[in-house]
Design brief:
Helices cover 41% and strands 15% of the residues. With 286 residues, it is of the alpha+beta class.
């Protein structure tokens, strides 16, 4: 990265850049799938109100991604992959503007030009097809670095986009509501599935538990004993390592913990993760 005279060049944070590209792409194609599907339903229901609640998705975030893509080669993106993603965002910016104008000019279907509606449906189905190709531009090995949940989400999104590109409106109800696919990785810090056993120490009480997933910010565990909300506890792993954390959420025996100190991206706990077969991977050498 460029540096000012007399200063040392700053090291490029490749992990952060890859996160920026990957997560922005995933949420962008999710929105493309949603809008393309809604347009398919809009054509069927003859009511522009179907689209109105989703106008906030038409904000153009093209410039941020285009800037991040300048460093694509530094994070392992191929020239073809960079060009594919850049073209998607450029075309998306154009179609967002056109769709926003269509929404603003039509309170009902009767107030819109049929040609405009037909063109929008065709354009967004094309964007959904483009978005599927853009997902393929990210190497699976790069995605896998962020956990198995993300691999599953990419597969879910590819199916969703395929439906939208084919003109399906099966996800849109008669009142314009949409049944969106559920993504497992909804947070920016990726969760990685882990296995094994751990011990939770709360005050003078020790409780057996099973870790489910981990991110740099926290840990998900299964614990049969109740833990007080906001309680500060110590988690002891099988190798003797201890981490202090706070109880952030509870759903039955599923407990969400926030670490007092974030983990580094190269932390052995993150590298341990489980594979798609549910079996724990061996720890990588430090």
């Amino acid at each position: 990265m460029p540096s000012t005279p007399g200063s040392e060049p700053k090291e490029l944070n490749r992990q952060l850049l890859l996160e920026t590209v990957l997560y922005d792409l995933l949420w962008t194609v999710f929105h493309i799938g949603a809008l393309a599907t809604l347009l398919n339903g809009y054509a069927r229901t003859s009511d522009a109100a179907t689209l109105k609640p989703w106008r906030h998705l038409l904000k153009d975030g093209n410039k941020v991604m285009q800037l991040a893509l300048r460093y694509g080669p530094e994070v392992g993106l191929t020239p073809t992959g960079i060009a594919t993603i850049a073209a998607l965002y450029s075309d998306l910016a154009t179609e967002k503007l056109a769709l926003a104008m269509l929404m603003d000019g039509a309170k009902t279907r009767a107030g819109a030009e049929p040609q405009g509606l037909a063109a929008a449906c065709t354009a967004w189905r094309g964007l959904a097809k483009q978005a599927r190709s853009a997902l393929s531009a990210i190497d699976e090995a790069a995605v896998r670095r962020f956990g198995e949940f993300l691999i599953e989400d990419v597969q879910t999104l590819r199916q969703f986009l395929g439906e939208a590109a084919a003109g399906s409106d099966k996800r849109v109800g008669k009142f314009g509501e949409i049944a969106l696919p559920v993504l497992k990785q909804v947070r920016h810090q990726p969760r990685i599935a882990i296995a094994g056993r751990c011990t939770v120490i709360a005050g003078d009480i020790s409780i057996g538990a099973s870790p489910r997933d981990v991110s740099v910010k926290g840990l998900g565990i299964t614990c049969e004993e109740p833990l007080p909300d906001e309680a500060t506890i110590t988690v002891v792993f099988e190798d003797g390592r201890q981490c202090k954390a706070r109880v952030a959420s509870r759903r039955g025996n599923q407990i969400g913990l926030l670490f007092e100190t974030r983990l580094g991206y190269d932390d052995p706990l993150l590298r341990q993760g489980t594979g798609a077969d549910g079996k724990a991977r061996p720890r990588s050498a430090a």
